[in-house]
Amino acid sequence: MKLEGGIGTMGSDAQSSVEYLMVFGWAFVVIIIMVVGLAILVNPSGAVEAERCTDFKNLLISNFHATDDNFSVLVVNSTGRNIRNIDLALSGKIGAVSQQKTLSVSGIFNAADSNLFVIPYSVQNVKGKYEFDVSISFTDSDNIRFSENAKCSGRVLASSGGIVGEIGEV
Asked: pTM of the entire structure?
């Protein structure tokens, strides 16, 4: 159908331009849908989840990870004082399995030192993600007891088989 120029009608150049934009517009939409579909096939969980952990108020979390047999957290004593009588509590889920574990350490954690805490549990062949609430209580050099909380989440790693319940400088 040929449209004649005039009021309320399109010239043939304008009609060709609109047809060109429509064809390539739909092709662009199809390409976007295919890319999104491919991304879902490659990563069915829908998103790349990074490991994340909020810091305690007076202690810094330098590194952390969860395996199917323990949760390890590297903590920096940023209180400016030596601390002792450290109790860690872990609660949350690894995969679909709920966990509640504690770890008590009687050693001295010197100011500005980094220490690795490993909280053991046993969940065999778990894959997927974890979400933990981590609580730490400690006594400072003035015999004042402090309690702090953090939230950690990420993907479960392969089993590490490390030393359990140790406190030591890294």
From this structure: 0.63
